[in-house]
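Bench notes, afternoon.
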Amino acid sequence: MFAYILWSHIAFGFAALGTAGLALGSAKGGVLHRRAGLAYVAAMFAVSATSLALVTLRPNAFLLAVAIFSFFLVFTGWRAGVVRGGQPRWPDHAMGAVMGLAGLAMLGAGVAGLAGAGGAQPVILLVFGAIGLTMALSDWRDWRAGPITGKNRISRHLTRMLAGTIAAITAFVTTNLAFLPELVTWLGPTVLLTPVIFWWNARVLRGRAA
């Protein structure tokens, strides 16, 4: 059972990477972009579901936290794309609450880990926990200010989808480049690709994105 779920998890991960490439390389708003984006979301949801099944069979709090973080990114990116009115619904608030609690738990575990045995995992938890918690809090702040529409909605959609893609790339790197230091494989994609998110966001908010 575990092996079957693991191979399904890997297959969905490759599907997510492929469809993410199609969505990123196609004209934004076009048919191919929408279809590839939906396929990417479905693949990432399947990745998250199989991750949950894996950690249920073999408990691993660290991997569970990372799975929640990855699911949050893709879910909020998808919601930003489909909820054109920008008004959050109960699933959005529920996901924000889950990420907020998970982020606090990740920060607490990271601090405890650094005070204890140390290693790479506490640092990874601190980084991902801080990012997830900041995003969840920023969602609530923005929702209180009013519906998120126009360029701001597109920017949110872009940011979360690209961040979810970074999570998928990270999973690939940690699995296939295990000879590299753990911090490099887990945080390297985030460090290298986050500037792309800032650059693309700047183009979107200035109305220059293609």
